[in-house]
Amino acid sequence: MGPSQIPPLTYKVVAECSVSKARAGLMTLRHSEVNTPVFMPVGTQGTLKGIVPDQLIELNCQILLGNTYHLGLRPGIETLRKAGGLHKFMGWPRAILTDSGGFQMVSLLQLAEIDEHGVNFRSPFDNSQCMLTPEHSIQIQNAIGADIMMQLDDVVKTTTTGPRVEEAMERTIRWVDRCIEAHARDDDQSLFPIVQGGLDVPTSRATDGRGFCGGSGVCVALGIDMFDCVFPTRTARFGCALVDSGQLNLKQPKYKLDMEPIDKDCDCSTCKRYTRSYLHHIATNESVSSSLLSIHNVAYQLRLMRSMREAIQQDEFPKFVADFMARHFKAEPVPAWIREALSAVNIQLPADPERSDDQDQKPETEKRRETEDAADEQVASS
Ligand SMILES: [Zn+2]
């Protein structure tokens, strides 16, 4: 990159929480500016299930995540290059972040072998053998043209212990150097190394940010800026709408005569036009209902992040977290792991009403949801 050129990523901190490590920032990428903390919907195959790019722009979505592993297999490098990259191919003018393909290793580990060279996969599509090396991962991501790319890392399951963990950390550092070496478009694409567990990448590596594995809903408090999740679109396909108190399962008969929108304070097109009753009515028509619910669910996640950002800027983030937890868990105990993670960054939640914390106990809403889902599956299969 020449000294006169603008770097492919600049980040500036806009506000910091005076209590926790939460921060609000502005990231400038080649295709768009991104306000952080930010939620990134996942467009696995270059499409978000149930939502088209124009609808995402209407929801003020600034950045999407694409999966390198899937895009490398289909449509593949040749098509991506001919199309001029994924932005043009899928008609998305704003920023894209790609993962390295490494995360799929964990889910496909029974199909993969890892050595110093890279990861050997058996393709789930045609059973052919394919090798993903750090160089090949970067080659695919260069063809995709993502604003932010991730290095290939040596993934271990979170339950793994012993020397294998150390081996993976050390190999991941060696692989970041191979990725930097292979990166052919460092004038317009940023490369993030992956940090696993407590691993700290030496600061001598000239990279623009860091990826973390194992994120969670309280990450903003810990100072993390970007999140991705398939949850809003996946849960929509099961007829569920996200609200502060958890989820509404619109397949339930109690919504049959409910003429309210999913959330009367939500400004998404689904809430503006449709009632819970209508969504209940079409809930068995999967493609239409999952599309309408996906729009609401992605709108919900994006709005939640915007509210967090505003709370950080007003230096009211701890209050925001406490209020949200109170709405989300209502009379149920906040799980111990959430309390502990927040306490580690100086956010103390008020004591739970009546009952004491029970680490093994799932919240009632979760138990109910599982029962409902099981019931739905039985209905579907009968
Ligand atoms: Zn809505």
UniProtKB/TrEMBL annotation:
Xref: InterPro entries: TGT-like_sf, tRNA_ribo_trans-like
Protein's organism: Drosophila simulans
Positions of the UniProt region annotated as Disordered: 348-382
PANTHER family: QUEUINE TRNA-RIBOSYLTRANSFERASE CATALYTIC SUBUNIT 1
Recorded superkingdom: Eukaryota
GO cellular component, one term: cytosol
Gene behind this protein: Dsim\GD23082
Protein name: GD23082
Example of a GO MF term: tRNA-guanosine(34) queuine transglycosylase activity
